[in-house]
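User: Earlier you gave me the apo prediction for this protein. Now I'd like the version with S-adenosylmethionine bound, so I can compare the two side by side. Same sequence as before, with the ligand SMILES added.
Assistant: Got it. Here's the input I'm using:
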Amino acid sequence: MVLERYDPLVDDAAAFRAACDRPLPSVVRVNTVKTTVERAMRALDEDGHGYERADWLPELLRLDSDSPGTSWPYFHGWLYGQEEVSALPALVCDPQPGERVLDPCAAPGSKTTQLAAMMDDTGTLVANDNNLGRLSALRSNAERCGVTNLVVTNQDARNLSLKPFTPAGSDEQPRFDRALVDVPCSCEGTIRKNPDAHDDWSLGHVQQIAGIQREILRRAVRTTRPGGTVVYSTCTFAPEENEAVLDAVLAEESCELVAFDVPLDTRPGVTDWKGEEYDPSVELAQRVWPHLNDTGGFFCAKLEVTA
Amino acid sequence: MSDGPGEDFATYDERRDDADGTFEENRSQVFERLPETAADREVEGRPSREAVVDFWADRFGVPPETFDGYTFWEKGAGKLWAYAGDAPDAIDVEALGMVFLRVRQDHWKPTTDAVQRFARDASENVVLLDDEQAKRFVAGEDQDLKWDGDWGYLVVSHDLAGAVEPLGVGLYLYGELRSQVPKGRKRDID
Ligand SMILES: C[S@@+](CC[C@H](N)C(=O)[O-])C[C@H]1O[C@@H](n2cnc3c(N)ncnc32)[C@H](O)[C@@H]1O
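And here is the structure of the complex with S-adenosylmethionine:
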């Protein structure tokens, strides 16, 4: 079984396993492009939907029921269904109004729409995905959320071209202030939402996807300006897809890991795994184990581009 | 819009805009910016930015300042996009901001999502539905309605959380309000 692999990394293996067996509540994020948290709560009250507000992020509401999709505030694009812990990386990315921000693996857009709201729907947000079907879901989610600062592209993020943003006759390639690199992964940490998430697990798949993650993160570092921020996130536990990817990119590109605060209980990145030793700075990354905050599993790292 | 309904609405009914992608007529893969005024026009039939802002103001009373800071773009024929970011003049991407208006037809038609985003301050040709009517509207049903105003495309609203909120676009013809909520946006509200 997949989770046993990680027993040596967790402080309380029994609690870890038990948390992974419990389902997660249905959570929505209030979309502040279109409304305020107060009005969204009032609309849910009027509709008779019960909820509890997450203390670490005021926009997150844990619902009593499972069907926010058929409520008035959802129809108005005031709510976005999103797993609680997946709201973390946008917070770490911390985009500001007016900035240029890249979301290279964006579909179906939960983090894209969150970034847009944090930017007050100003500046330029580029949302890319290589899967056209998933991109169309992103487009309708973004339009329902009323997002207008968005450019949607359909490229392989491993060699994302800035050409679409280069004026004709110029070779200026405007770099980004920030990137949120939410790569495809083996999704081990989503087991509480998808009980069959581990059915197709194989080490070969983990290693193959790690190669893709590394190339996507490298390209994001290169397209971000010196001094800019790149956030790397996955919803998986495997160090091969997390610290090992950071270790490789630190060696290849001009960037360094930086410390960051989060309003959740986390553990530092691991520096050795299965006989491999990683750059000691990978400790600055943060692991969210499901039993720590009663959420899904997550991994998040913050990098600063140095040249 | 004063001589009474014309035949042309019949065909518009078949058309789907918005995000469900059932109506794609992309002659060009490139987004091209609308000219500021009619005098700057280089492409036959393309409306100016000024004409678009005037349309929202004249038809729905949407204050022109609502669109300050937005650029308007056409991709394919007649599909307009409103975008708040920076971009060069002709840009080859999948989407730029949101689809907000269908033009190059006699009666310009706003999208559901554009009305929700931009028409909160609309003051003309706005019809306010009660809760039961609003539910039928978002489920995609047509319904009989008494309305003394203009026929044609209306902003359809209801009361939610202490204020009037636009739901989308309805086509009012012959005493009937026809829901224009696109397939992918229809909902059976509890
Ligand atoms: C974890 S999901 C992204 C979830 C999204 N950020 C959100 O919050 O809704 C990873 C995405 O990466 C896309 N992807 C996989 N390989 C890619 C590649 N080489 N280039 C661009 N996107 C890729 C997948 O289609 C998938 O949509």
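For your comparison, keep in mind: The pocket of S-adenosylmethionine is lined by residues A 105-111, 129-131, 134, 156-158, 182, 184, 212, 216 (CB under 6 Å).
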